[in-house]
């Protein structure tokens, strides 16, 4: 889902660039207004869902790594 949104944002950026090339102010501001809203929503998902998931995944790996290092240090 998040990667799909990245693709949609890239499409909106391209639409904005094309509007600039065509001197289409309404097209430019429409594409960029949509992009702004999409980015705000996307960032909220990253901050509230994706980043906490990553934190949990990394925390469990750090714990496993800590156990493995302690095991090796004790010679077991």
3D architecture notes:
By secondary structure, the protein is mainly alpha-helical. The chain has one domain. It is built from two helices and no strands. The longest helix is centred in the middle third of the chain and has 50 residues. The mean pLDDT is 89.
Features:
76 residues; mainly alpha; 2 helices
List the helices and strands and how they pair.
Elements: H1 2-21, H2 25-74
Helix pairs in contact: 1-2
Low-confidence stretches: none
Structural class: mainly alpha
Q: Strand-and-helix sequence, N→C?
A: HH
User: What is the overall pLDDT average?
Assistant: 89
- What's the total count of β strands? 0
In short:
With 76 residues, the protein is mainly α.
